[in-house]
Design brief:
Elements lengths: L10 E4 L4 H15 L4 E7 L10 E5 L7 H14 L1 H8 L3 E4 L9 H9 L9 H6 L2 H11 L6 E5 L10 H17 L6 E9 L2 E6 L5 H15 L5 E5 L10 E8 L2 E2 L3 E6 L5 E7 L10 H18 L4 E10 L5 E9 L7 H4 L2 E2 L8 H9 L8 E2 L5 E7 L2 E3 L5 E3 L2 E7 L8 E4 L2 E2 L9 E7 L2 H14 L1 E6 L4 H9 L2 H4 L22 H15 L16
Parallel strand pairs: 1-2, 1-4, 2-3
Antiparallel strand pairs: 5-8, 6-7, 6-8, 9-10, 9-11, 9-13, 11-12, 12-17, 13-14, 15-16, 17-23, 18-19, 20-22, 20-24, 21-23
Helix pairs in contact: 2-3, 6-9, 7-8, 12-13
């Protein structure tokens, strides 16, 4: 849509407990329509809404996903807010879940429709068809390569995990199903409801009952449900085990321009996402295999009945013979956190960039997506995540506590988008504090600019310091990464990890000066412990 064009709906309710996800939806809406749309934030009782929000809809803590409770609170707010009630009655309120797993739930879509709200995501039947197990079956039907898999439980065929007997019977059944595979190939136990590393467990020896039990129980605990569980064999187990993760976006059934490559830690949590124009993708895979992957992605979308933007994920690797292969692993039927790493590689006829969440709203209104052409301003887009913690050599991050007060550092012209959610850092909803989107015209220029960015700009945090920015600087200045030789599953393997955070003026004031101002120059001594030299 063109900037400040008439909005398709007057009201949007954002339903996502992550401040960063919520702020990203708000940023898209404001960039396209300014203040012409009223935006209502859903958040837990007692919490403060984000700057720029027009209203708040409060829900009980830990009630996310409970649509019966949400209906109660929505009905109450409508009884107090006549404008919201009027828009809801006339079907003009959009329910925007952002990029949570909730956004690709067919159950959620039907519940939202029942509430009289507009669902802007994938049509429920298509969403169910393209879930992880269904996706792999479609791959087999259209001839697209996918790793061997075994279904342990179908969707909606779970048991009551609060019943110890039923849970143990479920675990034993899954263990027997894995044993019946009679394989020692490394793999993963996965849930179709998972994402972002959650609901996935490594299983390096399927013939070891102890390992199988540990992997199964990890997934059950993380997801708190036992349906939609399957075993998937790891790729390149006969080669060196290295691979690059490729993400392709389909717009309905058409494959969008560019490929996005992802690097993650040992827990399969994404750390870095970089979008490359079609002519630069050959840095990581042969051009003919890339074109084949685009055809396969379109074929999968057609057979699955996809009606919106979705992301096909595949793993690219060299097998033991040195030949390149691609294996598709899943389809996300929702916007990705890193959506801008491909969105900025496209523009419409008037030169406007894509705004993913604004586009979803236009689709929900029935407006077809505009025809996009390759961007003329950049060929590489980096989506950098801001976390506050200390990564180790496996990329696991020990998150640090603190309060965010914004960003500090000079303005950089190659940063078209940057967000930082203010307030206390949450360890439960989303450790991602914000993002920076960086554009360039070559891989080398992107690495140079990323190094400059992580050196000069950083969050203003009152609390513990972290080594995250220094680690990212080391990544983008690493000779191996700059040469494109760092695989997706070895992001931190050969990286120099800082031993401790750097110290700035704020750290010195907080750690050294403030205690002196409060307590004096030395500890209290003698019979008058509170009389210091400063008195």
């Amino acid at each position: 849509p063109a900037a400040l064009s008439p909005p398709p709906f007057p009201t949007v309710i954002i339903y996502n407990q992550s401040k960063h996800a919520t702020q990203s939806v708000l940023a898209d809406i404001r960039a396209v329509w300014g203040n012409k749309i009223r935006v209502v934030q859903t958040l837990e009782d007692g919490k403060q809404r984000l700057p720029g929000m027009d209203a708040a809809l409060y829900v009980k803590p830990k009630s996310w996903g409970n649509m019966d409770h949400f209906e109660e609170r929505l009905d109450w707010l409508c009884s107090q807010d006549h404008r919201l009630n009027s828009d809801r009655t006339s079907g003009k309120v959009v329910f925007m879940p952002g990029w949570s797993a909730f956004a690709e739930s067919s159950e959620a879509a039907r519940a939202v429709d029942k509430l009289g709200l507009v669902w802007p995501g994938t049509e429920p039947v298509a969403s169910q068809t393209l879930e992880k197990i269904g996706f792999k079956r479609i791959c087999a039907a259209v001839g697209a390569p996918t790793p061997p898999f075994t279904v342990l439980s179908e969707e909606d065929a779970g048991v009551d995990l609060t019943d110890p007997v039923a849970k143990e019977k479920c675990v034993a059944g899954f263990m027997q199903a894995v044993a019946d595979m009679k394989t020692d190939e490394k793999g993963l136990i996965k849930s179709i409801h998972g994402g972002g590393g959650k609901g996935t467990a490594h299983l390096d020896d399927p013939s070891d009952p102890a390992q199988v039990r540990a992997a199964v129980e990890k997934v059950l605990v993380e997801m708190n449900r036992s349906d939609g569980i399957y075993f998937e064999q790891k790729v390149n187990t006969k080669g060196d085990g290295r691979f690059y993760q490729l993400e392709l976006e389909v717009d309905g059934t058409e494959c969008a321009q560019g490929g996005r490559f992802v690097w993650f830690n040992s827990r399969l949590q994404k750390v870095v996402e970089i979008g490359l124009s079609d002519d630069l993708v050959s840095m990581f895979m042969p051009a003919d295999l890339y074109q084949k992957s685009r055809v396969w992605a379109s074929d999968i979308a057609k057979m699955g009945g996809n009606n919106t933007r979705a992301t096909m994920e595949g793993l690219v690797f060299q097998n033991e013979k040195g030949e390149y292969e691609l294996q598709f692993i899943e389809c996300n039927r929702r916007p990705q956190v890193e959506n801008e790493a491909l969105a900025l590689l496209q523009q419409d006829a008037e030169g406007n960039r894509r705004y993913t969440f604004a586009e979803l709203m236009m689709r929900a209104k029935g407006t077809p997506a505009p025809v996009f052409d390759p961007s003329t301003s950049c060929k590489v887009v980096l989506h950098a995540r801001w976390l506050h913690g200390n990564p180790d050599s496996d990329g696991n991050i020990a998150y640090q506590a603190g309060n965010i007060f914004g960003m500090t550092g000079p303005r950089l012209d190659f940063i078209p988008a940057e967000l930082m959610a203010p307030g206390e850092i949450s360890f439960t909803s989303d450790p991602q504090l914000g993002k920076a989107v960086l554009t360039a015209n070559s891989w080398e220029e992107m690495c140079d600019r990323a190094a400059v960015y992580f050196k000069l700009r950083k969050p203003t945090v009152i609390g513990s310091s972290s080594t995250y920015a220094q680690t990212m600087y080391n990544l983008f200045t690493s000779p191996e990464f700059r040469a494109g030789k760092t695989a997706s599953n070895e992001t931190f393997k050969k990286l120099e990890i800082p031993a401790h955070p750097s110290r700035g003026i704020a750290n010195i004031l907080q750690d050294q000066v403030a205690p002196i101002l409060v307590k004096g120059y030395r500890a209290g001594e003698g019979i008058d412990a509170e009389r210091y030299p400063t008195q």
